[in-house]
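User: Can you help me understand a structure? I only have the sequence.
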Amino acid sequence: MKKENKNIKTFSKNEINLYSKIQSKDTCFKFINKDIAYINHGALKTKYLSKIAKEMENTKGLIIDDRNYPSDFVIYDLSNYLMPKALLMSNSLVAKKHQVFYFWQVYKRWQENKSYYKGKVIILVNEISQSSAEFHAMAYRVSPKCNRYWFNNGRR
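Assistant: Let's start by predicting it. Here is the structure, written out as tokens:
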């Protein structure tokens, strides 16, 4: 075995921005082409959803880019556009005192929606999709039009 010495430059936390991957200066909504809409979850705000829903309603596909941390808690509001009815989005086994377990099921109870989004839904996730981003992705993936493809290696 050959032994080598290497000098590796290191950086202090003040010299680099650890969160640059999750900070997005991109718009929250755009068209990839006339048939595919794109939502940047890291810039999306609840107040934009009614306008966005109107613009995307006739597209054939919607990409929800969840490779960031949500800028707003839009999970239930966006789900209202994606779901025809209340659907189970999370099923967890939770431990309590004395090793008693119970199931915690999360449903969103929104009104029946006959005009829900009919195009295909794709959700993009990666290692940055944690905590609230994971919870949002779990909700969107139960959309009946979600193909459930998960892209882990995509970079912006």
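Now, to help you interpret it: The chain has a mean pLDDT of 77. Strands lie at 29-33, 36-40, 61-65, 88-95, 101-107, 120-124, 146-151. Let me know which part you'd like to focus on.
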